[in-house]
Amino acid sequence: MATASALVTTLFLGGYRAPLPFTMFAGLDQGYWGILWFVLKTQVCIFILIWIRASLPRLSYDKFMDMGWKYLLPSALGFLVVLAVMKVAQTHNLYGQPVFWACIGITLVALLLWAIPWPQKVTEEPEKPFDAFAGGYPVPPLAGQSAATESVVSVETATEMKEA
């Protein structure tokens, strides 16, 4: 947490420089004040991280991975594509072209149609009876399963299993 907070302080919070209201005073951004500001910002970040960790429920690792692969990565790639299209359109001055806006509209309609949860046809498979001896070892049926009335395992194979 300390390393992450120090990185956040360095990259996003100005590092050793004084926070915004204190930059108006000339002496508070020089000398040893930089070390004090860095440590203070790092401690505030640690406090916020501990506070968030204690307040929010703990999520399992598989839920984080699921969220990352299903939502965060595709949205980041989509955002990257949108930024690239905007940069190309700005460079080539395409914002005034009706063809550009038609392509944008068709893309948005296609994305909306893709995002709509369409009802899927459910096919019912006939339920096979549960065979408790299918693997050679008797297993009780799960909830919703019914045991087969006759066993598939013959008497010969049962005696062979006992002998082995």
TrEMBL record:
Classification via Pfam families: NADHdh
Segments crossing the lipid bilayer: 33-56, 68-86, 98-116
GO molecular function, one term: NADH dehydrogenase activity
Keywords: Membrane, NAD, Transmembrane, Transmembrane helix
Membrane topology annotation: Multi-pass membrane protein
Signal peptide: none
GO aspect biological process, one term: aerobic respiration
Domain of life of the organism encoding this protein: Eukaryota
Compartments (UniProt record): Membrane; Mitochondrion inner membrane
InterPro entries to which the protein is assigned, alphabetical: NADH_UbQ_OxRdtase_su1/FPO (IPR001694)
GO cellular-component term (any): mitochondrial inner membrane
Family annotation (PANTHER family): NADH DEHYDROGENASE SUBUNIT 1 (PTHR11432), NADH-UBIQUINONE OXIDOREDUCTASE CHAIN 1 (PTHR11432:SF3)
Record family assignment: Belongs to the complex I subunit 1 family.
Name of the protein: NADH-ubiquinone oxidoreductase chain 1
Biological classification of the source: Eukaryota, Metazoa, Chordata, Craniata, Vertebrata
